Model the fold of this input.
Amino acid sequence: MGQTMKRAALLTVILWVLLGLGFPLVMVGIGQLFFPWQANGSVITVQGRPVAARHVGQYFGNTLQYFWGRPSDTTSITTGKLQPYNAFNSGPSNYGPTNAALLHDVKVRVREYLQTTPGLKASQIPLSLVESSGSGLDPDITVQSAFIQIPRIAKHTGLSVTTLTRLVESHILPPELGIFGPRRINVVLLNVALTALIHKHES
Done:
């Protein structure tokens, strides 16, 4: 019995070392060797300064001159209050489709688009622009979601509709592996490029 217990304890220690330490270290090493940019957070830099992460959305809803991403219902881990795109507390609102709070939020978001975007109709607004994603951190929007925002951005930046249309078209990403999901646009990358255009236009 004593010998059996010793063998069990030894096996536990060996498995703990292999799976608890060895395997994670190997995965980290492979990531750093073959995929260093992705493994370190896919950080986007501008003039050598980190400004965003490729796979984490940012909140642009309070700035009329930028493209807006999907709504985010993430909250602060200390106060519990809404804090859009808080990467420390990823998650959805968990509201059902008939929930009064969700319906109110959707109406508010639709009204905000209608009030800020010249010529826009409610029927043109994709659901993804008024309903939050499951993670609350989604950086991607549909192509249509970007195109309908062009009139607002043109109005507040002075950039032409033609220029902004070309910018959006140059940032269209194909479906994953060419077959999974629709074409999409990464709002973070799009707004980084838009910032450069705005600065060039103002200089």
Notes: The chain has seven helices and five strands.
